[in-house]
Design brief:
Blueprint (H helix, E strand, L loop, with lengths): L5 E5 L6 H12 L2 E4 H14 L7 H7 L5 E4 L2 E4 L2 E2 L7 H10 L3 H12 L7 E4 L3 H5 L5 E6 L2 H14 L6 H17 L12 E4 L5 H11 L1
Parallel strand pairs: 1-6, 1-7, 2-6, 7-8
Antiparallel strand pairs: 3-4, 4-5
Catalytic activity: CMP + ATP = CDP + ADP; dCMP + ATP = dCDP + ADP
Family: Belongs to the cytidylate kinase family. Type 1 subfamily.
GO cellular component, one term: cytoplasm
C-alpha cells in the first residue's frame, strides 16, 4: 500500500514557510506539520528545566519525555498551551542553537514521520525534504531577502503587541542564516529536486497559489 503524499517546504527563518505550508494544507485538506515548532518546544522545555543548550546528550534524552500535541492551530506541551510562548525571539534563537545536535534531530525523526497520515501531509521545516520525507512528491525551498524577512517578522511582533527593533531582527536573522548554513548537521540548503520560490515581492496568496500549481 502506497504512503500518503507529502509536500515538504523548507527555507530560512521568517521566510513565510509556515504560513504558506499551513494554507496549502488547508486548501488540500491535508494534515500539517510545523517541524520548527518541535525544536522550539524542546527549547522551551529545556530552558524551564535548566538544561544547557550545549548538552546534546541530555537534550536528546529530554525529547521522549515531552507530551506534544497540536489542536486547532494551538500547540500544547505537557498539557499547557504554549502557542505564543514558543514564538518569542529568545526561544527561536535557543531552538536554532540546540538544533545543531544530532541527538535531538534523531530523537525527533520518528515523531515527525508519525504525522504522515491520509489523505496527505504538508510539512515545513529543516530536514523535511531531505531526511524526514526524502520521497516527498513536491519539495519547495521558500526564501526571501533578509531585509524582507526581518520586515515581516517585525510586523508580526508589533501586531501581537511585542516590542521589537527592526535592525536587531535583521542582525539576528543574518546571524541565524550564517549559523544554519554552515553547521555540520542538517545545514540550510536546497534539497535535491526542490523548486525554489523567491517570495520577497510575492503576497502570501501568490506564494500559496504557486505551490498549489506546482502540486
Amino acid at each position: 500500500m502506497s504512503l500518503p503524499p507529502v509536500i515538504a517546504i523548507d527555507g530560512p527563518t521568517a521566510s513565510g514557510k509556515g504560513t504558506v505550508a499551513s494554507l496549502v494544507a488547508e486548501k488540500l485538506g491535508f494534515h500539517y506539520l510545523d517541524s520548527g515548532a518541535l525544536y522550539r518546544l524542546v527549547a522551551l522545555a529545556s530552558e524551564k528545566q535548566g538544561i544547557d543548550v550545549k548538552n546534546g546528550q541530555e537534550l536528546g534524552l529530554l525529547v521522549p519525555k515531552l507530551l506534544i500535541s497540536f489542536k486547532n492551530s494551538q500547540i500544547f506541551l505537557n498539557g499547557e498551551n504554549v502557542t505564543d510562548a514558543i514564538r518569542v525571539e529568545s526561544i527561536g534563537l535557543r531552538a536554532s542553537a540546540l538544533a545543531v545536535h544530532p541527538e535531538i534531530r534523531s530523537a525527533l525523526v520518528g515523531l515527525q514521520r508519525s504525522f504522515r497520515q491520509s489523505p496527505g501531509l504538508v510539512a515545513d521545516g529543516r530536514d523535511t525534504a531531505s531526511v524526514i520525507f526524502p520521497d516527498a512528491i513536491l519539495k519547495v525551498f521558500l526564501t526571501a531577502t533578509a531585509a524582507a524577512r526581518a520586515g515581516r517578522r517585525y510586523k508580526q511582533l508589533i501586531a501581537k503587541g511585542i516590542s521589537a527593533k527592526l535592525e536587531d531582527l535583521l542582525q539576528d536573522l543574518q546571524e541565524r542564516d550564517a549559523r544554519d548554513s554552515s553547521r555540520g548537521v542538517a545545514p540550510l540548503l536546497v534539497a535535491d529536486g526542490a523548486k525554489v520560490l523567491e517570495t520577497s515581492d510575492l503576497s502570501i496568496d501568490q506564494a500559496v497559489k504557486t505551490v498549489l500549481d506546482w502540486y
